[in-house]
Amino acid sequence: MADNSLDPTVPASGTGCVECLASPDGWWFHLRRCAACGHVGCCDSSPSQHASHHASDTGHPYVQSFEPGEDWFWSYPDSQFAEGPQLAEPTSHPADQAVPGPADRVPSNWQELLN
User: Fold this and answer.
1) What pLDDT score was predicted for residue 53?
2) Which residues does the UniProt record annotate as the domain UBP-type (predicted)?
3) Three-state DSSP class for 104?
4) Sequence-ordered strand ranges (E) for the chain
């Protein structure tokens, strides 16, 4: 990873997808964290795919899974897994947080809505 494409000292922006939380009906399947700025966005299986939109809009090429027990990185330019440093805490959403989430917004037919 290029040094200017990540900042391991910046914390995550929160425990859920920034854009989904800003929308009254937004929800996500899994979460990804930008390795450059800490932005937490929803994965490409989620309806809105905010993590990859963030990468495209900002040029920040790497994300790390923001799921408990996962520490893999993804390179958007290379469309493959990548190696990366330990990022600042928190490294995942809380283990007791609903998946998909947020629990009160997930439609009953959520599986049909995944990409």
Assistant:
1) 98
2) 1-101
3) coil
4) 31-34, 40-42, 62-65, 73-75, 80-82
Inside any domain, residue 57: yes
What pLDDT score does 5 carry?
82
pTM listed for this prediction: 0.95
Intervals of the chain under pLDDT 50: none
Residue 25 three-state SS: coil
Contacts by 83-86, CB closer than 8 A, 24 or more apart: 83/1, 84/1, 84/6, 84/35, 85/1, 85/6, 85/8, 86/8
In a domain, 107, yes or no: no
- Asked whether the beta carbons of 5 and 35 are under 8 A apart, the reply is yes
Domain count along the chain: 1
Q: Helix, strand or coil for residue 78?
A: coil
